[in-house]
Description:
It is a single chain. The chain is an alpha/beta fold. The protein contains eight helices and 14 strands. Strand 1 (3-7), helix 1 and strand 2 form a beta-alpha-beta unit. Helix 6 (153-164) packs across helix 8 (188-203). The longest helix is centred in the C-terminal third of the chain and has 16 residues, at 188-203. The protein starts with a strand and ends with a strand.
Amino acid sequence: MARLMVVDDEAQIVMALTRGLEREGYDVDVSRNGLDAVSLAASGAPDLIVLDLNLPDIDGIEVLRRIRSWSAVPVLILSGDGEEERKIAALDEGADDYLEKPFSLGELRARVRALLRRAGAAPDSAVISTDGLDVDLAMKTVELDGAAMRLTPTEWRLLELFVSQPGKLLTHQWLIARIWGAGHGDETVQTLRAHLRSLRAKLGDDSKEPRFIRTETRIGYRWVPPVATNAPAGGASNHGG
Length: 241
């Protein structure tokens, strides 16, 4: 089973997380401060890190920033009430998901399983297929239920980012930086939402009952379905326009 690392300075939380995860068969290492966490992540090579934002020495976001300078290990953030801005900052720095305290061990274990599955499920084909949608990342073509789709360049870039990172919460600012560059300000969120509405309309995706893209209120978006790879299939329309 996978080796996990729990980083938190609250003894009760550490005990509960350790016991709950070990019951699932995981090996669990524990760190109670940020500097030790960075060192342990380097020496212990965990498969996933559960990281609290409030640590006694250095901030959890700084821990994440240091780890991300050399590792792509999945990181699940634990955040408290009233920490929305810091939670979003952590996601922008490369955290893969988050849980707000208080949370159930069942939900924690489900998030851990999902992150571990994603970490081991890198596609070995340029064609990604799910729920009737076929996206050819090499040829930049799209088919939905067998019909070719025509997307604008921005819609294509959004779709490409989503299908390449299924299940991961992608924040507004993360998407904006990758589509328009880091120099754009908060006003671009409205532009992003406009492009998302257009993409959803072409996908026949209802934001209230999403088939593909789920909105995470005030934070960003998440690609809903599990993505599987298929052998390339011809006949899709070019995305340009």
